[in-house]
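Project standup — Tuesday

K.O.: blocked on the structure for the chain from last sprint. Re-posting the sequence here as requested.
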Amino acid sequence: MYQVHTAVLIGRFQPFHNGHLALLEQALQVAQQVIVVLGSAHQARSPKNPWVWEERRKMIDDCLPTRMKGRVQFVPIRDYYDLPQWVAEVQRWVEALVPPMGVSMGLISHEKDASSAYLRHFPKWKAIELPRQGAVDATPLRELLWNLDEQPAEQVQAALAAALPEPVLQALTTWRETPAYAAVREEAQALAAYRAAWAGAPFAPVFVTVDTLVVCAKHVLLVQRGHSPGKGLLALPGGFLEQSDTLQASAQRELQEETGLALSAEDWQAALQGVRVFDHPERSLRGRTITHVYVLHLPGDTLPEVNGGDDAAAADWVPLQELWQLEPQFFEDHFHILRTCFAQFGGGPLPVLP
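H.V.: unblocked you, prediction finished:
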């Protein structure tokens, strides 16, 4: 007899390993159906999130016996960098998949460390405590993939084979031959070198950056990053705060250097809609990075000429109606920044994204 009609299993599953599979099999023993929430959906590939949500869904689906496939549904959820909002979105999307009344709901609880604290924020759903299955952890598995040259290939393959279901092992073996793997591995190594440069500091560094969100004639100004991290991804023009600059001076300088758009102090102040700070501890893989986003609206129907420069491989005005489909191509949390700033400063010249 099932404990609940629907059980919810939340994770990033980067990648889906034997511990995850055992947990899902246990969940199917206590619930008539299981809804798997795939976290960090719609993110660009990175060393922390190498596989897009569609790939992770296929990994999981390929591991299920035919008799179980019809009992598992999937919900992709983006990162909101705001726990209450994220919890509300998980509940909204999950409950849309169950009958409207009289269905018992349970949340699979499998706390492994402080990162599992979110499990205590779903009081509407019955907590179903299941023990953690094995000692497999996804983080060292990803590290193996980025550091293949440091161990014999046979040892790496044996370690992966011991931790991954066979369909996932096959998928990752094939993936290692793709340009996507090469790009993420290059980024992982660049980030490792970046962190090593600060390893001798007495305290973990806190980085301060600036970004500028410029809207004009129903377009937003974006750059394509020229270097790792985020090489080739879309971003707001910006960079690190210079020692001799104020925040605004740095933002103006970075805007001009990366896009060629030079604004006088008067034009900057006339266009300024507001400033928003983004300081979520996990917003950047470079380390603790706090950014200050200047939101500008330029009047008129003519788009100023822009050209990529400095750290930007390209700069361009992107139509606002195209932003939504570009979400998986954005660096770090920059799409989240767009959504948040448009919601805060919209209603006038700026749009509000769904």
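K.O.: great, moving the ticket to review. The domain at 4-135 is CATH 3.40.50.620 (Rossmann fold). The chain has a mean pLDDT of 91.
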